[in-house]
Specification:
Blueprint (H helix, E strand, L loop, with lengths): L9 E3 L6 E3 L5 E5 L8 H15 L4 E5 L3 H7 L16 E4 L12 H15 L5 E6 L1 H17 L6 E7 L1 H13 L3 H12 L3 E4 L2 H18 L3 H8 L1 E2 L14 H10 L8 E4 L8 H9 L9 E4 L5 H10 L6 E4 L7 H7 L2 E4 L13 H9 L4 E3 L5 H5 L4 E2 L5 H14 L2 H15 L4 H12 L3 H7 L1
Parallel strand pairs: 3-4, 3-6, 4-5, 6-7, 7-8, 8-9, 10-11, 10-13, 11-12, 13-14, 14-15
Antiparallel strand pairs: 1-2
Amino acid sequence: MTSLINAKHLRPASGPRGLVPRRPTRRLVIVVRADPVICGHSVEARNLAETALLRGYDDVRIVSWPVDRLRETGLPLKPLDSISPYSPGITVERPAPVGDYKVPDGRYHAGIVGRLVELFTDGVPTVAMALYLSPHAFAIAEARRIAESTGLPCRVTTIAEAVGSDVTNIVRSCVAEGRLGPAAAVLSTFLSFDVCVAVSDYTKEVVVAAAAEVDTRLGTRFAAECAERVAISYPAMDTRAYLDLDPAEVDARLAARGLRRGEYVLFLSRLTTAKGVDDLIEGYAASRTRERMPLVIAGNGPEAHYLHAVAAESGAGDSIVFAHDVDDAEKPFLMAGSAAYVLPSKPCPDFTETFGIALAEKMLAGGGPVITTRTGGIGEAVGDCALTIGVHDPVGIRDSLDRAVLDTPPDQLQAWELRARTHALQFDRAQVFDRLFARLEEQEPVAEALG
């Protein structure tokens, strides 16, 4: 069984045959819902992959799903032509399904597992990382078991990263429905990895609490093991994209949208109920800030039409601007130019913020203060560098907006901005990568795997 060789892993040969394969020496495989899915963990996969190249990995693979399958799920996707190219040395693979229509979803899983088996059995020391436990950790665990059973060289070390929806969408719902087998499968698979991490302390608490519910029903010991073994690894961010922005380019980008630096309030995230945009519209409509500057709501999502209606009925519709076409390249400039950035997230049955990547990005970019809640892991993202309000709190939004925009002296705003940026720098992708992969060195199998 051999692994497919990507064209970028070929080098010129002296003989007439032209190109011969160059054998990689260290490989990182990340299994994730990769670009073009709009979500923080797709961005994190890119950041970890790019950093791996700088840390000596000469073959980095992001293994994901065929684009047509992602479209069928209804996940939010970027236009394919808007995705920035990955650096040479990074290959995005989307294995084709195995089987026909008689095997509906399992054939996609089988395609990924089969490709991972090929990558795991060519003798290259490999670190395999799952972002999301289900189905990505399941695919890696199954592929590793199969690879080891073949008798072929298999030098693989594994990392699994849990996010809140791994638990809220699967473990909690299964426990509530009395379906304890699937809940135990997620937790057992997670703990089978060499390194287990969660994206925030909040996420770890959710995992441990859900595991305790399973233990109570089954007599297992998942909670104790999760509490002992699960470490924290915050999402990896490309801080360079938000630092030292050219003021002239900031102004030019804003002018293209009819905006001026420091003269608008910004929301930039997915347009969903959990992001609290309806509360923001109500709070902004009641504020004195409304008389001074517009509210820009940037992003897209399933609640877009509903929020347009909320804005129209708020009495402040003429001062609210929707921008549904903001791409990754424009995002830092909009953040840097805002007088305040508001993300009033609130817990919902199907989603709770497990960290708050956009908030940390805003603090890196500069501009006015962040106004947010303490929902989920947001407190870890912002520290003491944000104005925090309660959930479902339009009055708090109103008062915080007026304080940030109208009542705080410029020197205090500047000091706040510098402190926020310092806090957010800890999430730089190189630092996150180094802390995470240092945990591998504590594992006995890694000494042999990495050489």
